[in-house]
Amino acid sequence: MIVSRTKQLALGALGLAAALLTPPALAGDAAMLRIGDKLKITFFETMDIPNPGAGEKGAEAAAVTQAFYQRVDLSGEYPIEPGGTIAIPLFGSIQASGKTLEAVRTDLGAAFEKTFGRRGGLTVGVTQRAPVFVAGAVRSPGAFPYTGGMMVIQAVALAGGIEKDQASATHVVEVMRELERRAAIRDRLKNALARKAVLIERQGSGANPALGRLLALAADGEVTALLAGAGRVARLEADLAAKEDGLRRTTAEAAATEVDLLQKRHAAFVAQLNARGERLKTIEALYARQMVESERVADIRRDFIDMEARKREFEVGVMQAEFRQGAAKEATDQAGLRQKLSLEKEIAVLNGEIAAAEQSLTTSLNVVATYAVGQGDATQQYQIVRMGPTGAQVVSAEETDPLEPGDVVKVVTVRATGRSERIKAAAR
């Protein structure tokens, strides 16, 4: 088939469209692609359109005209995934990492032809490269966009430049943290000693070593404030315990009064029951001599039986009241023992806290922050961590060495051997 002028124009239009649709290739496109790169891929396909004017305009007119259109279902931006592939609809995973753009373009064309049974056009361009990472003795470590021809010194500049005296600053911070930690330990120790001193005074044990230790650790004004604070808490606890004791004593006294009252009522009722029993005997004797009727005897006997049942109820009530009295007395005794036990336990816990705090203070006194003081200026060394076929490789680098996408630049500060200084935390 003779190519018509229309077809030639269409081919030219295709080339122009491809040029317009293809993103500007970033510097370094000729280099191998890497994981993290992002590709813009555009697919085109031809379509034959019948030319109704063929045969009327001479032999040069073609029977069909070829039109070109973009496959929007396949075109788009595709990142190179951690496995080194790009995922194209209908094509599956296509290996891209470690290949050039031209090689990826060839593989995509072959996949298109295999899938659809015909050839298609496509363009491939890099829109984003894997970032460069900067770590170590820099002001703002992190990830930065890769640009073509980037050098080590440029990446360091993006990270804010070299961090000066980083080692010294780190040790100074550690010393300040140690001093703050030590001050917090001293505060806990003084509060524990004040609490223990108040509890010992509440016990009435006599000697109070906690107070002596507190006086040696803190100033007089601070000791007064600490004891006042601990005393307020102790007084509140003592008031609460006194109210609970008073309630228990009141309960015990009420139980004792109830027992006494029930016992008196029981004794009076027993006397009445005995009198009713004597009367019953008298009536029964008169009935034996046929001097009273049997109904009267039966009534008196029923009254006597009822009174005996009530007597047993009185006895049960007395027993229950005596049990409540005993329980109230036992609760009062146990409460006193629990208060003493709670006091002893709290003092034991405070002893543990005091011992731990004193041990921490002793350790803190021996903590020494050592930092190197160089005899000359510190120097920086650069290392590049680069992923290769066999894994990560670390190589020494200079400021002007070129970088590749995905490289990690590590800046190391090296100081000459010098003297050492030791900083000891003060006792106070």
TrEMBL record:
InterPro entries: Poly_export, Poly_export_N, Soluble_ligand-bd. Transmembrane segments: none annotated. Residues 31-124 form the Polysaccharide export protein N-terminal domain. Residues 1-27 form the signal peptide. Residues 132-167 form the Soluble ligand binding domain. Keywords: Signal. This is Soluble ligand binding domain-containing protein. It comes from Methylobacterium crusticola. The lineage of its organism: Bacteria, Pseudomonadati, Pseudomonadota, Alphaproteobacteria, Hyphomicrobiales.
